[in-house]
């Protein structure tokens, strides 16, 4: 029977972030992370596939929050509004982790392999959001467009939240990014007739 190790995931995460800060991501090994946490390498691999996943293990929970939020949006909510509301619902996950998120983002910015993993995470989140919209009866290409736009909003808002010296919450930045997108695309204005005809031909 496996020995119970209280908060093993949290201990490993904290140890990894300490070592990444002290020695650098590339110079830190799984063995060193486990030793710093007072755990074994075997325990590490029960929680993380590799040392990259220390930075990405929360993606599954984030995906669930987003899909649940979309599913629970009011029936008459526009697709992008449903996605935006779901993104706001993720804010409590980040509220107490701004310092961690800043260190994480700095690590990702400095390492191409981590940047690729971050892009993959956002792509998977967009795919899950689009599927949740389709389950609400949203057709294509509207579901994919709303989901991809939502992830762009999330990325811009998250980066603004990390830089915010006034301590404003993620919802503030999500709403600001949504407003900026609306001003860029002229939200609320009807599409030109030619564009509507082209869109209809594309669906036929």
Per-chain topology:
Elements: H1 8-23, H2 30-37, H3 41-47, H4 59-71, H5 79-88, H6 91-95, H7 98-110, H8 112-135, H9 142-163, H10 170-185, H11 193-203
Helix pairs in contact: 1-2, 4-5, 4-8, 5-9, 7-8, 8-9, 9-10
CATH architectural group of the largest domain: Orthogonal Bundle
Order of helices and strands: HHHHHHHHHHH
CATH superfamily of the largest domain: Tetracycline Repressor, domain 2
Within the CATH hierarchy, at the fold level, what is the topology of the largest domain? Tetracycline Repressor, domain 2
- Taken as a percent bin, the fraction of beta residues is under 5%
Structure characteristics:
single chain, 204 residues, mainly alpha, Arc Repressor Mutant, subunit A, Tetracycline Repressor, domain 2, 2 domains, 11 helices, 71% helix, 0% strand
């Amino acid at each position: 029977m496996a020995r119970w190790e209280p908060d093993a995931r949290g201990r490993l995460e904290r140890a990894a972030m300490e070592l990444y800060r002290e020695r650098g991501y590339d110079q830190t090994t799984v063995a060193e992370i486990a030793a710093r946490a007072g755990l074994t390498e075997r325990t590490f691999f029960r929680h993380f596939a590799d040392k990259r996943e220390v930075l990405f293990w929360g993606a599954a929970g984030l995906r669930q929050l987003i899909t649940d939020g979309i599913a629970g949006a009011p029936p008459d909510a526009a697709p992008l509004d449903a996605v935006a509301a779901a993104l706001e619902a993720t804010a409590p996950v980040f509220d107490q982790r701004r310092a961690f998120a800043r260190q994480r983002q700095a690590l990702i910015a400095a390492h191409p392999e981590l940047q690729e993993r971050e892009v993959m995470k956002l792509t998977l989140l967009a795919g899950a959001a689009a599927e949740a919209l389709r389950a609400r009866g949203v057709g294509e290409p509207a579901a994919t467009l709303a989901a991809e736009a939502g992830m762009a909003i999330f990325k811009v808002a998250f980066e603004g939240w990390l830089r915010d010296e006034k301590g404003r919450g993620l919802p503030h930045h999500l709403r600001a990014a949504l407003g900026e997108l609306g001003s860029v695309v002229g939200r609320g204005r009807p599409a030109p007739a030619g564009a509507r005809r082209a869109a209809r031909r594309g669906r036929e």
